[in-house]
Q: What sequence folds into this?
């Protein structure tokens, strides 16, 4: 079977050494006989900038990466993600949530001891209780809302244990419930990372998802979405994250460590690839 991998950066800043390491790992996993894809994850149009998109292509080409074209740019495909959300909605697994961040915090404080997941305190489920009439009226009145997955209903609908395989950590039993009723679309971003990534990995025939271990837990949820949507299940390989001299993870806010600043300092592509070859 041909290995198909992808590197999926978001153009919210310049790429840093951690990105180069991730891209290199992905390309190496595809090997000479596989396919290495580049995907632009720019659904958050409030944070993505065209100059960062151009820089992604430029920096990766400077490092000598080659990728299949056309590149899938997620912001060109909002209609696809809407169709996925419509399918989940037809399955009665989504509900509108009108809560503001403040409402949620207040409710969590009221409950006390709220359960926590990978992204913090779980949504207490306030809007899950709304009647169909109340939902209709509030939407008609123009109230803004997010769409949440009814996690218990989704797990019930699947009705069996799900597993996924990580090449670094082995077989995993999926525990999507750790996310609670996760948001799958927002008013300002009419999709979510979880929807777009699982849809695109299936559409593009990705056989091996490589990404940083900061997204390890997300795979539990992605496995559930794959099952609900009838998608193929890729293998995973979550790799470590590079840290700077201070022991902290590289982040886009660390402007000094961008690939372009390394180029400006006079490092060659080979120098940078050597530094990036860590996984
Ligand atoms: N777009 C994500 C990021 O820039 C990567 C998502 C993934 O590889 O699944 O962190």
A:
């Amino acid at each position: 079977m041909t290995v198909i991998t992808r590197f999926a950066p978001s153009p919210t800043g310049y790429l840093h050494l951690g990105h180069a390491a991730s891209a290199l790992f992905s390309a190496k996993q595809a090997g000479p006989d596989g396919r290495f894809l580049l995907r632009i994850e720019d659904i958050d149009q409030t944070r993505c900038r065209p100059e960062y998109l151009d820089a992604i292509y430029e920096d990766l080409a400077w490092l000598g990466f080659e990728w299949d074209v056309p590149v899938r740019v997620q912001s060109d495909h909002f209609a696809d993600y809407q169709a996925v959300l419509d399918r989940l909605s037809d399955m009665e697994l989504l509900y509108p949530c009108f809560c503001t961040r403040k409402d949620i915090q207040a409710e969590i404080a009221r409950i006390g001891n709220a359960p926590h997941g990978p992204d913090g305190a779980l949504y207490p489920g306030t809007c899950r209780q709304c009647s169909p009439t109340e939902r209709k009226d509030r939407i008609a009145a123009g109230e803004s809302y997010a769409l949440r997955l009814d996690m218990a209903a989704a797990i019930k609908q699947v009705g069996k244990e799900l597993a996924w395989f990580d090449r670094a950590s082995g077989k995993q039993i999926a525990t999507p419930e750790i996310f609670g009723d996760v948001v799958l679309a927002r008013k300002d971003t009419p999709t979510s990372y979880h929807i777009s990534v699982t849809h695109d990995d299936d559409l593009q025939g990705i056989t091996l998802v490589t990404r940083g271990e900061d997204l390890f837990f997300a795979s539990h949820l992605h496995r559930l979405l794959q099952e609900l949507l009838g998608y193929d299940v890729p293998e995973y390989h979550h790799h470590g994250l590079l840290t700077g001299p201070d022991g902290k993870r590289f982040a886009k806010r660390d402007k000094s460590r961008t690939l372009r600043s390394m180029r400006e300092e006079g490092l060659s592509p080979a120098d940078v690839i050597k530094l990036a070859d860590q996984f």
